[in-house]
Structures are given as C-alpha cells and as structure tokens.
Design brief:
Alpha-Beta Plaits; 13 strands; 46% helix; single chain; Jelly Rolls; six-stranded antiparallel sheet; alpha+beta
Length: 314
C-alpha cells in the first residue's frame, strides 16, 4: 500500500499534492493492469476516468489506432483530463504501447478536488481545455485535407489507379530495393487493343467506361503486393516486386483473360463488347533503370501487337 501511494505521489498530476488528498484518491480505486494493444480511451466511447500512468507506456492516435503514434506517454503522465473537464468524448485514441499499470480517478472525485481548489484555477483549466480541444480538432481536419490532397495528387481520377506522378516517384525506389535484396522486379506494360476504333464506334463515354472496368479488373485480379498505374491514355503499367518472370507471366495471363471476358457495362442498361489487351513483360537486371525497363517492355508490347494482339510477350 505504501509503495502505491508513493507511485501516485510521483505522477505529474499529484506532484506537491498533500498526503491527505493522495490517501483519499488511493482509497477510491485500485490499479489496473493493461496489455499491449488494449485501447484505453476512444472517441467512440464515453470516458468517466482520468488515468495516472504508473508504469509502461501509452500512445496517442488522432484518426485510427493503426496510424503512427502522434505522441508517446511515459510513466508519470495522465490521460483523460480533457474529456472529463469538457464533459465530452475523448478527442483521440489512447492505446497501450507497452504493458502498463494505470490508476483510475473517477470524474466525480476529480470534480470534487477541483471545486475544493481556487475557482480561478478551475476556470483556467476549463478555458485551456477548450483551446486544446479546438487545436486538436484543427489538426485532425488538416490531416484529413492533406490526405485527400495527397491521394488526388497520386491517383488517376478515371480509374482510381496510381497515376504517372506516383510512378515517377516510386519506380526508382522499387528498382533500388530489388537490386539491394536480389529479388526480381517485373514490369507489365499494357495497351488496349484497337482502342481508337472502340472509341469511334461506341463513343468516348463508352471508351472511358471500358478504361474504368479495366482499372477495376486490375484491382481485383492483381496480388496485394502488385502496383498498377494508368501510364497514359489507354496504357497501363504494373510493377510486380519480388516476382520471377514465370510468376509474372501467370499474373499477366490472368489479367488478360479476365479483361477479355469482362463486358462493358455502360450503367444505362446497355452492355458493350469487352476489350482485349496486349502485354509486354520484362524483368530487371543489375544495370536496369526505369527508362530502360519501360523501353524494353514497350518493345515486348510492340511484339505482342505484331503477333496478333490479345497476348503476352516477354
């Protein structure tokens, strides 16, 4: 019991607080042991306690519990004050980072202790809490806007795939990683067969819908480790990290087959013929560059067109 009182006295919130008050806090609850990954506070649930962190560590997250830590709380810190003072839901997620021991102080006791103090201190705490809460809300909104802008900057509007800007930034990184690890990087360059004729026959809206369907097909057909981009017009480029040529051929054939058998739904009750694609496939070598791989894939794509289209060449 004595050691617990000492632990409480060493927290930041109870620094220089009288022994009588600490005894009073100690008498109303017991410490809680928490395992790593447990969620202590959440914006989705009401909170009735301030928690004093006696050991271990906690992490604070604004958007989801999966994001990078915004802040790490160590022994002696406390959490939950803002939601208690503001009588609102917590403004962030607090997750157990390392096995922790916390001591809960119920909101009723907390308000009793505040009301027994100088009213000026009580009012100041409430004002500061409102300012902090407003700042937190601004941070969350700004992060959301930044995420939207980043997404728009790297995503093709029509197909929802990555765009050329993303590829320009990512290609070298994937190639360096492949060279460092010794794992192969395969590239698929895809072109829609007779796309101009398709547009001229059925109209540009139908052509756009065909590209959308190709984008959706790539998303569902590719493996989770693959990255598809709209390279330009009716061309697409796919990066296949850690993939041998034999494996890449299987991926390419699966994509080709699925697109060939996907009718074009114009969303007005009409259906148009499916499109076919030609694919050029290449694998990196020790002296490969993004340009050399794209040029080589383009040569293989040309060969696929010469061989009658709707095929894979490598």
């Amino acid at each position: 019991m004595g050691s617990l009182i000492q632990e409480l006295a060493e927290t930041r919130l109870l620094k220089d607080v009288s022994a009588a008050v600490i005894e009073r806090i100690h008498a109303q609850a017991r410490p809680i042991e928490l395992a790593s990954g447990e969620v202590l506070l959440s914006p989705d649930h009401e909170n009735d306690y301030i928690y004093l962190l006696l050991s271990g560590s906690l992490s604070v997250h604004f958007d989801t519990t999966d994001e990078i830590d915004e802040r790490v709380l160590e022994k002696g810190c406390s959490v939950g004050e803002m939601s208690i003072l503001d009588n609102a839901l917590p403004s962030a997620y607090v997750v157990v980072r390392e096995p922790a021991k916390v001591f809960p102080i119920h909101r009723d006791l907390f308000h009793e202790l505040i009301s027994e103090s100088n009213p000026f201190v009580c009012n100041l705490l409430k004002i500061l809490t409102q300012w902090i809460k407003a700042s937190t809300e601004c941070i969350v909104r700004d992060r959301s806007r930044i995420g939207e802008l980043t997404n728009h900057a790297t995503t093709d509007v029509l197909t929802g795939l990555y765009n050329r800007r993303w590829l320009n930034n990512a290609f070298t990184r994937f190639l360096v990683q492949a060279n460092e690890t010794g794992h192969p990087l395969c590239v698929l360059l895809i072109d829609v067969d007779h796309f101009k004729q398709y547009n001229d026959t059925f109209g540009h809206l139908a052509g756009d819908q065909a590209l959308i369907i190709i984008g959706n097909c790539l998303k569902t057909t590719m493996r989770s480790c693959d990255f598809a981009t709209r390279f330009g017009g009716e061309e697409f480029l796919i990066l296949l990290p850690n993939t041998t040529k034999e494996e890449a051929v299987k991926v390419a054939e699966r994509i080709r087959h699925d697109i060939e058998n996907k009718v074009v739904d114009c969303l007005d009750g009409t259906f148009l013929p499916s499109v076919t694609i030609s694919i050029g496939l290449v694998t990196n070598t020790s002296d490969s560059t993004p340009k050399s791989l794209i040029d080589s894939a383009d040569a293989m794509l040309y060969q696929a067109k010469q061989d009658g289209r709707n095929c894979v060449r490598y």
